Here is the input.
Amino acid sequence: MTAAELTGKSPEELREQLVSLKKEAFNLRFQKATNQLENTARIRAVRRDVARVQTILNQKAAEAAAN
Here is the structure.
């Protein structure tokens, strides 16, 4: 997922994606704790995707407040 893909989405779509990413991160943490996690790099990727979505949401909120 790139920032360019996210900027084209509405804030509501971004919030939905944020919720699904946080659920995925939660499940990955459980898999790691029970030694069932196969792709450890996925934790890092999901964490960064969450940060990307939050950044775009904040940018959109700042634009809305400026206008």
DSSP finds three helices and no strands in the chain.
